[in-house]
């Protein structure tokens, strides 16, 4: 199976779907594919579906190696915009790898990241937070 990277311009969303064996360099390549898409916009949120991926060959060193590459790509592609990324992983074996990735990149990426067990929950969070706050990091403060 092949990994998928696609743009949903209507929902201001970039989607990555991992399918089959995942190598460390797959993430940066897919991200570069997304930001090179003519429909890409700097304020797009991202949805990353890990459920079809097989992460048994990834290790901490390989994740550390790709972190600055992906951070650089995002920093240039987002032009300072804060966005959101919803990761989906229902596999108990691979979930700690995704949690580690989120923690490792928390201070290096211009994005707020969350992990969900279903695509429906992830999409709901992205839609609700976009509707209630606009760009990530710009939470609306309603007072009574």
Structure, described:
By secondary structure, the chain is an alpha/beta fold. It has one domain (4-133): STAS domain (Transcription Regulator spoIIAA, 2-Layer Sandwich). It contains four helices and five strands. The chain has helices at residues 26-36, 60-78, 95-105, 119-133, and strands spanning 4-8, 13-21, 45-54, 83-88, 111-116. It has a five-stranded mixed sheet with strand order 1-2-3-4-5, sandwiched between helices. The longest helix has 19 residues, at 60-78. It is globular and about 35 Å long. Mean pLDDT is 87; it is low at 137-144.
Write the layout of secondary structure elements.
Blueprint: E1 4-8, E2 13-21, H1 26-36, E3 45-54, H2 60-78, E4 83-88, H3 95-105, E5 111-116, H4 119-133
Parallel strand pairs: 2-3, 3-4, 4-5
Antiparallel strand pairs: 1-2
Helix pairs in contact: 1-2
